[in-house]
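Researcher: Watch the backbone:
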Amino acid sequence: MLDDEDDAPEAFVRSLGSGQDYALVIGVNHYPKLRSLHGAVADAKAFAEWLVEPDGGRLSPENVRTVLSTLDPLSPIGHEINDALEDLLERAAASGGRRFYFYFAGHGCVGDRAADITLCMANWSELRRRAALSSEAWLDVVVRSGAFDEVAFFLDCCRIWAVRAVGLPPHIDFARPVERARATRVFVAYATELQRPALEVSTETSAEARGIFTQVLLAGLRGEAARAGGVVTAGSLKDHLETSVAETAKSKRLDQRAEVVNGLEAVTRFGFAMHPPRLKITFIDAWKSDVYEVVLLGPGDDVVMRGDPRHGPWELDVPAGDYELHAGKIRTSFHYAREGGITPEVLHFGKWSRRSAPGSFSPRDPSRSVPRLRWPLEAWLPAHATHRIRYEIAVRAAWIEPIPMITASAVDTSDAPSMLFVVLLDADMPPWSVRLGIGWSIHGENAAVEFDRENTWDDERGWSVFSARLVPGTYILRWAGKRDIVIRLFPGFTTQIVVDHATWKPRFESPRMFLLPFDRSAHHPPPFDIANAVEQGLALLASAPGEPPPPLAKVMAGESFDDPMLGLLGAHLLTREKTPDPARIEAIADHVEFLLGPCPDVHALRLRAALLRGTDLPRVPCSEPPLLREGLLTFVEASHHLPELIPPGSLLEHACVERLVDSSLSSWPTRRDSGANEDDWLTAAIADVVGEREALLDERTLAKELGVPTLAVRARLAASRRDVPASRPEEDRGPVGGVAAARLREAGKRCWAGDYKEALVLAEAILATEPENLTARHYAEICCEKLQRTTFLVPRLVGSSEIAARLGIDDRAARVLDAIDGELPIEDVLEISGLLPLDTLRIIQELVIAGVIEIIRVG
């Protein structure tokens, strides 16, 4: 600290502040044609408060103009800010100016120039692309005014490129720059790097959303950016923003890095905060490690501090001297000089990745010793003990090599703000060259990819991974062209889905989906507690008994959350309470929308809240299915009140009609390309009802009975009435028709009520006399899956001898083919072939891929 200001550098003395500093502060939350923000206005108010604080900027309140958004009337739209700038420049020209502060919090984008941010006004839209300010033009006008020695711009907004994003200059201008004896210096702080978003998160003390950049900025201006001397300078503020924004974002599992252009002299001071000397220890990537305690030893080898690095950073008031950090096998020493302000010290766990021998292994108990892996695959293991042990053995068996960041480079969109990450597990998979991903594929508006050797990563021990950056939107994960699972990619998030297998057969009752902040540099698994909570939450939605785990219980109790999947699960579980609270469900839906943006799952929650209240439903149609089956059920129920909610022929309608009950995620049989529905189960069921009932049928009543959307019934009912004569002789229907229809209705009711055993008995009784009854077959398949009946995998020939001849099958493969008669299960084929079991399985898999045989499930 400088004892005598006469000895201070000239730049330092000039920056001590006076009544000649001015500021224009703008905060915009309200965007009717964009996603509204939650913290921009609060951030702008907080910065304006710092400007006038005695220990802050010490500006005169008369020299600060604050423009905050309102919805009615919609403001600002531009002229308010122009008026404020003109007033400030006139005041500075009359009484002299030293520094000008410009702060903006709101939506932003970039056009052709990386340094020029389009600062969106409240009326900005896809059409009104000029309803914005040009940051570069406004900076230029302030500089050319000649009224200020220094200009500081702080821009807390995104810098994502947008087509023809055009910001306008101020209304005022100068014919030529005002000449000055000393050139104006400029300091510009961008909240994020080019092509990256600026993020809002809840604060440590409340659930209120605030910008990461502004939180770090104000903390730095209030002393955290102070270095030697205990004051905040332009140089230390730049270092603080570029370091601490990234650290704060990473602690929230997000990715944001500030960019600062400092044209001021390094010792130029910001504000009047004086920070006492402190040692600040920051832990980077601590959550990736298996270290749960760090110890700081002081100059006398005494323990100064100990704790979990995940709860850092530490800010300590300690004497000068030599210190040593112990973190597992990591040892690092440093000297602390205690010169005033914050002295940073960083412990980077990512630099200490190492291999270690397997020890006791518990993928859901971080307090126990976990073997150190380069890639924490154990985070995706199923938590249920009966399924987990096989995967534990697979992980402990060998050293897992790092997974590539992108496995499907052919479809990777490098500038996409979202990623898809598919993990396939099968501990029973033998170590051969055939990939576990065979049979899986991804389908979306701009992508249709079959998993193969070129786009999946495989460790040959039952782990297979597909990953690619894709544009946000709805995608379908498809198995063998037969079954679909909906996946949705959100801006700024990685969608991870994990599917367990049992000898190639996917276990559709237990897929797990996680939504994690998107990191362009590395894959991040979900934290152990989040993974466990999501898995248990999905099980609870599937009617499994039990209490919600603590993370879910906190969400349901109204506490703030950062994981959107926990929010969706918690809200749907609230709807199952005896007296559900619609207000709490809506509050969770609002926060999920803040995290993800508008999506079908949020729409479903708002529909459920309206249904619980008995109020008017949101009249917004939806064509895409939600992630969770509970959302499908909500759309179906809402369509009985508002039929146009689900457009006819949409993917959502198909998902609602064909939804499968063995998974908590939205899943259904693959829709045929033709989109025809003349022989689907619903058409057959309606035809049976029309044939049985003489009276006109009410489409909504029938939709409720069958548990499907109203318009789906309307279309099929109209078609059925056209096809069936007005009067049918009783003998044409047959004596069994009425009995079969009654049994079918009863089977459907029991199936949807969860009485799968009785529903299966009724369905099989119908199939005994009507083997082609599609509705009965549909109910029987659902019940078999839910009851997990004992079945066998049976290989059978589907190709001709000519195909086998063209493949050049050798003697060993011929022995396997001789053992396949279409009735023996795989286990018997393994014994009869006379080959080693793994060799036989490899040959069977190759024959399946070649189209010579197929595997069917019998039982």
